[in-house]
Design goal:
The chain is mostly beta strands and about 50 residues long. It is built from 1 helix and 3 strands; from the N terminus they run H-E-E-E. It has a domain at about 20-50. Bound molecules: zinc ion (ZN).
């Protein structure tokens, strides 16, 4: 009861994750980057790279 739980704060991802994370141009959510395409799980945006 008297224990204080550590509050999870929103921290920026480490530098190594920065390069992989792209933002959706529609809703600014993080895109899921696949080998040849990027998809947004939030709004359904998808971009296929040839
Ligand atoms: Zn989106």
């Amino acid at each position: 009861m008297g224990k204080h739980h550590k509050v999870n704060r929103w921290e920026k991802y480490s530098d190594e994750g920065e390069s992989d994370s792209k933002m959706c141009p529609r809703c600014q959510s993080m895109l899921a980057v696949h080998s040849n395409r990027e998809t947004c799980g939030n709004c359904g945006y998808s971009k296929i790279e040839k």
